[in-house]
Specification:
The protein is an alpha/beta fold. The chain has two domains: 3-118 and 246-267, Rossmann fold; 125-243, Dihydrodipicolinate Reductase, domain 2, CATH 3.30.360. 43% of the residues lie in helices and 24% in strands. The chain is built from ten helices and eleven strands. It has a six-stranded mixed beta sheet with strand order 7-8-9-6-10-11. Strands 2-1-3-4-5 form a five-stranded parallel beta sheet, sandwiched between helices.
Amino acid sequence: MRVSVGLVGAGRSAAELYAPSLASAPAIRFAGIWSRSPEAARSLAARCSVPSFGNFAEMLEHCDAVAFAVPPAAQPFLAAAAAGRHVALLLSRPIADDLAGAEELAEAVADDVVSQVALTWRYAPAVRSYLDTQVRRARPIGGTARLISAALASDAPAWRAERGVLMDVGADVVGLLDAALGHTALIRAHGDPHGWVGLLLEHEGGRYSEASLLATAPADQPARAEIEIFGRGGSAMIDCSDVTEREAVGTMVEEFADAVEHRRPHPLDVRHGLHLQRLLDAAETDLLAGH
């Protein structure tokens, strides 16, 4: 049985990543698109040969699940409404634009409502192999991350430009360090949200990591998203800038369809998203306080 999935949003990520992946997934029936921009929804829906809906509630009547490709401020209210109808959720990251919104969303998602967070790197085959083999062999005690890109230098969506690099990619970086070194219990931050941000993470089990983030590099600067783990068995490094987003999103929607069909919880669920949001909130608080 194919799972009926609707798409919320019609911007760049919806058009370039989500819509093609939903349309091509064998286990999914692409139910249609809703966006707060009706014209954009109609245009994208026509390209995908699926319906566009005039309102969100109408689309929910035709869906087993919804995938969100919207700014974080828009997601909690819409996702909570869908969860209230027991519609499964594929959530963008971060799951909200602040901790209160993330907590309200997590509370609205009942245990029997399938949820999954779009931490793209975590669905990439190369990253999964890295975590399962190289990191384990290293027997980690600590690690570092360095992300340098021009993603926010120009032509960035308004919310990304406003909130800066931490909220733009922090969930991906912190989430991968969390996966490699264990549950992050404490985070501290310093720097400029719209420039260079440094993070210090303390993981359960006595492991530690550091991360440096910059998303306003010159356009001709090669992008980097390096994670390196160190331990008693050596070191292990991966550059996540090599991740093919389309392939990772394809894997993500396939796993989502399987989880929805079998009512099976996914490890990267809304509660994991809340854990990451708490860390981002603590780090952003440090940045705004000038630490």
